[in-house]
Amino acid sequence: METYLETKEQEMYELLERIVNTDSGTYDKEGVDTVGDILIEKFEEIGMDVKVHYEEKLGNHLEIKASRDHDPKILIIAHMDTVFPKGEAEKRPFKVIGDKAFGPGVNDEKASHVQVLYALKALKEAGSDAYKNVHIIFNSDEEIGSPTSKPLIKQVAENKQYSLVVECSRPNGGLVTERKGVGQFTLDVKGKSAHSGVDPERGRSAIEEISHKIIKLQKLNNYDEGISVNVGLVQGGTSTNTIPSVARADIDVRFNNEQQAADIVKKITEISQEEHVSGTVTKLKGDISRPPMLKTSETEQLMNVIHEAADDLGITIREVSSGGGSDASFTASEGIPTVDGMGPMGEFSHSEKEEYTDLKTFPQFTALLAKTIEKLSV
């Protein structure tokens, strides 16, 4: 398989360039579906069955396996959406500098699309039926918590024995066996507007009210315990000479376990219900979007198989934990042994210029995925 993939490197790079140069921000349905169309074409070319799950507002999801009749035991998950706006690919298209490929979403996670395709091609070329043992989901909304694809992932995950999620592997072969849980919340404060010079006493400042709440929210951070609460976006007011009648704060929460999640939700709710500026009203929206991905003994057994595959290929891998969220949390919470970071090696996802995929390890980690699939199918 390694030799076959080495002969296909140029093909892989050309397909990667095509996908990276196609904008596919989460809310760009046309762009995400264009990436999906490319993948449909490529997977159908190798005889795979592709089922499209149509979405009205966000991109469609793809479900791929050898045939509709097959009951594969390995679930592979990748996402087609990125965090970048329309026009980003034209502004900074795919380019290669040395051994690194750059471009919007190259590492998160368009290189993974190519990797999954060529892992299956390598298995077929080697005469292995292991490609029939994979059930692939390419979803369109991972970057916003997978609101429409989560039910599909959970449905497909039923009766699966393993889940391999192809977010990028970390430098030095880091594969993810633990992830924090994620919550997203919004505070909307309604006050009363008034002229700040003529009759300010008539006003009720929504910005003043939300400021009190923000300070209390930030104090919920406990990095030693793995808890982070970040008010990352604040909006409010209409002009400097108007007492602001509206204000909004968007909150990101990370935690290690379900008890921490329950405690944080309770505290955020209590803070939202406190009134500091008389006459203001606060509404809290949001919830826990992803449970934590916990390492289990079954995960350890799955990692042992991946280590064996890596040893066969002469690849060094290691286990890491991550504060970032991914769809791996959904399958792990269903009790399915799950390893994330099975994608090509790279760094700096979501960054405007630094994000890259390491091309010199691209064939090796594609071979690692193929070899792992083969070992899990014995």
What can be said about this structure in brief?
Residues 177-278 form the Peptidase M20 dimerisation domain. The protein has 378 residues and is an alpha/beta fold.
Structural class: alpha/beta
Overall tally of domains? 2
CATH architecture of the largest domain: 3-Layer(aba) Sandwich
Shape type: elongated
Radius of gyration: 23 Å
Properties at a glance:
single chain; 378 residues; alpha/beta; Aminopeptidase; Alpha-Beta Plaits; 2 domains; six-stranded mixed sheet; five-stranded mixed sheet; 17 strands; hydrolase
3D architecture notes:
With 378 residues, the protein is of the alpha/beta class. The chain folds into 2 domains: 2-180 and 293-376, Zn peptidases (Aminopeptidase, 3-Layer(aba) Sandwich); 181-290, Alpha-Beta Plaits. The chain is built from 11 helices and 17 strands. The strands form 4 sheets. It has a 6-stranded mixed sheet, sandwiched between helices. The protein has a 5-stranded mixed sheet with strand order 4-5-17-16-8. Strands 11-12-10-13 form a 4-stranded antiparallel sheet, with helices on one face. Strand 16 and strand 17 form a beta hairpin. Helix 5 crosses helix 11 (362-376). The longest helix is centred in the first third of the chain and has 20 residues, at 106-125. It is elongated and about 80 Å long. The chain starts with a helix and ends with a helix. The model has no long low-confidence stretch (mean pLDDT 96). Its cofactor is Zn(2+). Keywords: Hydrolase, Metal-binding, Zinc.
